[in-house]
Design a protein that fits this description.
heterodimer; A: MetI-like fold; about 75% helix; B: about 350 residues; mainly alpha; MetI-like fold; 18 helices; extended
Chain lengths: ~350, ~350
């Protein structure tokens, strides 16, 4: 028994050798190698992706977190060097003052209505123009398009005074623009609203990428230009429409330049004009017009520039908050609508 | 939580359907049918007489007509006025209004010889701004394309990451910037606290220098890292543009490539990149415009004209009007430079762009 066993027993060296050989075989096997490489690549890619994305998210979120931390800080804690992130005493005092300073509910309502109506007008005006530039080329349309692109290159701020004086002395077809709450709507309807040129550019690029066969088949089926635009082109440009309306809304909501140009601060309180109204002399504005808001605070705080920084910070956060909240609702819809559009699946 | 979301969604859906029904009713009412038949008279008349190609031209012009009117009234005339102002000395005369006296190129000469701020002369700021913009274009374009590709792939927490990346787009507001100028004390205070923690804990640049990496490379890395917040916050729109472009690429192209055994890398260069390239143009133009509008030049220009920001007082223009001629001349130089850069970028990029239907 034992002898036979000994004969059959492979020496340890041999055993190891065969094991190593097997391992080498499987290691060098082309199929295994491909599988292994793919796994390593995927794992490494995943790790790298997670690393970069987490870092970038941190960079973006840091200022926002700081704003939140400021919002819940009591004005008395402002000079305390020990309070960095977590408020010493949780209080809504700062938020209360900022709410009063912005006259929040009224200006929020006005801002949202203004932005929503402008968005609808912008989408209609710019989609028409963009379609015309992409598919309905008439003599000179190319030149006109580049001129329109030129308008977005010139900073609006630099035309401030000449625009203001011109509007003041020359009403637009008999409509007084300055001190008129419809001025921004009129401007958007005529394709010159806030960054309309970018939207026109976006629509043009989108419509250019629609295959010409679609248009030709619509023509053969007897559709006119308007029918083609309405029933064939617009449904295809759903992604562009969603993108443009989102940006039109956000930019109009955040806009200060046009609101100030038409002196909206006199006719219609908006969040932006309210927020910017105290620039440079917030302490004076607060003490004269909002004295009753500050009655709970000591005199040494009322003179502290840090305190007014705290209030502006919180006011800015309050201005962003509705957008931020609605953004988290819209985000999914937004991405889905992009995914469903375009010429995918055709 | 989920139930609440469901309820909100349902209620939104109900509101939407009721609104749709309402409009449908109006649309189908007898009055609207009549109106529509009247509205259709002109297009039908045109369709009967004019061939399709000609009609396309006419409608193309009609679609653009409001834009032309708006352009002339809202942009061209004020723009030409500002050119006129750039060649004149502008003053506000009591009882008469604005008076502009022609002075030739004096304003331009003044800008390039004497105009200066704390940060240097106008020419220096212009050159540094242009260099910064030119280096920003490729960085932002590549970064946003990579991020768009990453955000398009499937992984856990994608919705959250996407939401975070587009947040800076929401925060970019001039009003917030303006308001924050009065909050500088607070931000400085905050920076003095937070940067202490980060910089003392671990100095990356010193570490690299100790590892015998050339000083120039370390400096470049350092500046790129310190600019990363700017890059991230300025590329939100570009990421969105690329993302929507990637998602509109026909899926059958990828399927065919997969059947042929193409790798992800090859698919990116052979399919995604060419199909996305038209949007590269949009993104590049947007990048240039955006970086011009946020460059330090604008603050220099605005320093020469501070419009009256207060909400009280008459409708007249207070502020330092005597410098408005110089302000106008500066904005002209600014516009010319940016048009020049955009022209160069458009020409170079348009050669690389691929259109699906051509």
């Amino acid at each position: 028994m034992t002898n036979k066993d000994k004969k059959n027993k492979v020496p340890f060296k041999e055993q190891v050798k065969t094991r190593v050989k097997d391992f080498q075989m499987s290691w060098n096997d082309p199929t295994n190698r491909r599988v292994r490489n793919r796994r390593i690549g995927e794992g490494g890619g995943k790790f790298l992706r997670a690393f970069i994305l987490i870092g970038l998210c941190f960079i973006i979120l840091l200022p926002l977190l700081q704003k939140f931390s400021y919002a819940f800080r009591h004005p008395n804690d402002i000079t305390d060097p020990q309070v960095v992130w977590i408020p010493g005493t949780f209080s809504v005092e700062t938020i209360r003052i900022a709410l009063g300073y912005l006259s929040y509910t009224e200006s929020l309502k006005n801002s949202i209505i203004l932005a929503a109506v402008t968005t609808v007008i912008q989408v209609m005006a710019t989609a028409l123009a963009g379609y015309s530039f992409a598919k309905l080329k008439f003599p000179g349309s190319e030149i006109l398009f580049y001129i329109i692109i030129f308008t977005m290159v010139v900073p609006n701020e630099t035309l401030d005074l000449s625009r203001y004086l011109f509007f003041l002395n020359n009403p637009f077809f008999g409509i007084e623009l300055i001190l008129n709450t419809f001025s921004i709507y009129i401007m958007s309807a005529f394709g010159m609203g806030l960054r309309s040129a970018i939207f026109i550019f976006l629509f043009r690029q989108f419509f250019r990428n629609v295959p010409i066969e679609l248009e030709e088949s619509a023509e053969i089926d007897g559709a006119g230009v308007i029918r083609t635009f309405w029933s064939v082109m617009l449904p295809n440009a759903r992604g562009a429409i969603v993108t443009v309306s989102l940006f039109a809304f956000v930019w109009q909501y955040n806009d200060y330049y046009f609101a100030h140009l038409f002196r909206y601060e006199r006719t219609l309180p908006l969040l932006t004009t309210k927020l910017a109204s105290g620039t440079g002399n917030l302490s004076a504005v607060m003490v004269t017009s909002f004295g009753d808001l500050l009655r709970n605070l000591g005199d040494e705080i009322k003179d502290d520039p840090l305190f007014f920084g705290l209030i502006t910070n919180t006011a800015a956060l309050l201005m962003m908050l509705p957008l931020l909240i609605s953004y988290f609702f819209v985000q999914k819809m937004f991405v889905e609508s992009i995914e469903r559009t375009g010429l995918t699946g055709m | 939580m989920k139930k609440i979301f469901q309820k909100i969604k349902e209620s939104f859906g109900k509101v939407a359907t009721s609104i749709r029904r309402f409009f449908r009713k109006i649309y189908d009412s007898k009055f609207m049918v009549k109106v529509r038949s009247y509205l259709a008279i002109v297009p039908e008349w045109l369709a009967a007489r004019i061939p399709y190609r000609r009609r396309k031209l006419i409608w193309g012009f009609v679609f653009v007509l409001p834009l032309i009117i708006g352009f002339i009234y809202f942009f061209l005339i004020p723009f030409i006025t500002s050119i006129r102002y750039s060649f004149s000395f502008v003053e506000n005369v009591a009882g008469e209004g604005i008076r502009a006296t022609f002075v030739g190129f004096d304003n331009y000469v003044y800008i390039f010889t004497q105009a200066s701020t704390v940060n240097g002369t106008f020419a220096e700021i212009l050159v540094s701004a242009v260099i910064q913009i030119i280096t920003n274009i490729p960085i932002i374009l590549i970064f946003s394309l990579i991020v768009a590709v990453v955000l398009n792939s499937k992984f856990k927490g994608r919705a959250f990451v996407r939401a975070v990346f587009f947040m800076p787009v929401i925060f970019n507001s001039q009003a917030i910037d303006l308001a924050m100028t009065s909050a500088t004390a607070l931000t400085q205070f905050a920076e003095s606290v937070t940067t202490d923690i980060f910089s003392n804990m671990f100095s990356f640049q010193d570490y690299l220098l100790n590892a015998n990496i050339p000083v120039g490379a370390v400096g470049f890395l350092g500046s790129a890292v310190s600019r990363i917040y700017d890059v991230v916050s300025y590329s939100g729109v570009q990421i969105l543009i690329f993302l929507s472009a990637i998602q509109s690429v026909p899926k059958h192209l990828y399927e065919a490539a997969k059947m042929e055994g193409a790798t992800q890398y090859e698919m990116f260069w052979k399919i995604t990149f060419p199909m996305v390239s038209p949007m590269m143009l949009t993104a590049a133009v947007y990048t240039i415009v955006d970086s011009f509008l946020t460059s330090p030049l604008v603050t220099v220009i605005n320093a020469y004209f501070t419009p009256n920001k207060s909400s009280s007082g008459d409708l007249g223009i207070a502020g330092q009007l005597s410098n408005y001629g110089i302000n106008a001349a500066m904005s002209w130089i600014f516009a010319l430079v940016s048009v020049f850069i955009i022209g160069i970028v458009l020409i170079t990029l348009s050669k690389a762009v691929f259109y699906y239907d051509e």
